[in-house]
Write the structure tokens for this entry.
Amino acid sequence: MNETPQQYIARILDTLGGRDPLTVLTETPARLRSLVANATPDQLAWQPAPGKWSIAQILAHLADAEVTGAWRFRSVLAHDGGPLAAYDQNEWASAFRYEQVPTAESLALFEALRAGNLSLLKRVDRARYAHVGIHSERGPESITRLMEMYAGHDLNHLGQIERYLEESRGVTAKTGA
């Protein structure tokens, strides 16, 4: 999907729909685990179209996004006004061979990092939520905005995984896989 940083922000915040970001961030690991618990290897590897990520690749992406989130949260909480680098998610997917990452590994990394990030966000002085980092593509982002972006990102990919599971069921039923 080709969109400007402003379009991406609007889409992700719209996906969040005013929900409490901390609640979404807290609920995501269990929702992910529940969604993929009974998925077959074929469903996890199924791609809806050439060049589109499979569920397994989405999980690897979510784990890597949480790596960047861990760094961004810590950077901004400690240093108001510091830079936040963007990254090319498709380059990461290719370079890190997301199609080869075991689902269990992605889930474990995501869950561990998310637990650490939530612990950090809950224990810091709330005044630090106003700290701002300067994202290289999206501009100024407070901790509160980062939380909203990560929560909306979670919901975006949870919805995508739900759709892919449903679509892959239909495909594998037709092919007898």
The domain at 5-172 is CATH 1.20.120.450 (Four Helix Bundle (Hemerythrin (Met), subunit A)). The chain has a mean pLDDT of 95. The chain is about 65% helix and 5% strand.
